[in-house]
Amino acid sequence: MTEQRDQQPSLEPMPTDWRRALAVVAHPDDLEYGCAAAVADWTDGGREVVYLLATRGEAGIDSVAPDACASLREAEQRASAAVVGVSAVEFLDHRDGVVEYGLGLRRDIAAAIRRHRPELVITLNHRDTWGGDQGGGYWNTPDHKAVGRATLDAAADAGNRWIFPELISEQGLEPWDGVRWVAVAGTSTPTHAADAGPGLERSVLSLLEHKAYIAALTDQDPEEYVRTFLTGNAERVAPRFGGRPAVAFEVFPR
Ligand SMILES: [Zn+2]
């Protein structure tokens, strides 16, 4: 195992010549588990990051019915975004757990890309598994796969005026062909990384804002659980990034 890991190629630093990013994920907490340390560092540097969530995560807590859960998780998501300098959090209101890949989802994401005009788009693992590049691994959820794939597609849809022409005629959303990279967090085949050190502490506080969700998830002390998880993830990337704890991304240039 160690030998295999040592042979993995080094990760390139994430691009830095951009001003605006749009992060598109399925659920509240996806960005906090995936890449909030990088987001904290980016917003500290004066960059603008907007969060777009396909659902409100209303099917995420077994003991809370969806109607009550949606507002609870929305509030937790807004609080966790604020901790890492993100004030704009939008929801597409697709149904949690049964998000369908398709034209509707692509159109909704393309519309958001046209509204916010990001150079960098972030999403979460669109592949079938977590960590399954050597075989095995954990099966990914249908929502993550659908939203990740639709986001990769929508980066191009946003730039073509003849795809979803109703975005122009009904919403006045002119094409935005300025997305230069789509960076996917949580894949087993990363190409790039961002230093997690400067933002790690705030990423812990950010994930901790998902209080009700974490309380339902584990009996462990919340801070211990969150710190162990996020620190472990960042340290696993370090051997491929000059020994520095980091957040890994698979970058698709455009
Ligand atoms: Zn999720």
Number of domains: 1
Instruction: Kindly report the name of the CATH homologous superfamily.
Output: LmbE-like
Mean pLDDT: 95
Proportion of residues in helical segments? 40-55%
Number of helices: 10
Strand order in space, largest sheet: 1-9-10-8-5-2-3-4
CATH topology-level fold name: Rossmann fold
The main sheet comes to: 8 strands, mixed
Q: Classify the beta-strand content into a percent band.
A: 15-25%
Task: Characterize the overall form.
Answer: globular
Gap between N and C termini, in Å? 34 Å
How do the helices and strands follow one another from N- to C-terminus? Answer: HEEHHEHEHEEEHHEEHHHE
Task: Walk me through what this model shows.
- The structure is a single chain.
- This protein is an alpha/beta fold and 254 residues long.
- It has one domain: Rossmann fold (3-Layer(aba) Sandwich), CATH 3.40.50.
- It is built from ten helices and ten strands.
- The strands form two sheets. An eight-stranded mixed beta sheet has the order 1-9-10-8-5-2-3-4, with helices on both faces. The chain has a two-stranded antiparallel sheet with strand order 6-7.
- Helix 4 (66-83) links the parallel strand 3 (48-53) and strand 4.
- Helix 3 (36-44) packs across helix 8 and helix 5 (103-116) packs across helix 6 (142-157).
- The longest helix is centred in the N-terminal third of the chain and has 18 residues, at 66-83.
- The chain starts with a helix and ends with a strand.
- The mean pLDDT is 95.
- Bound molecules: zinc ion.
- Zinc ion is lined by residues 26-27, 30, 144.
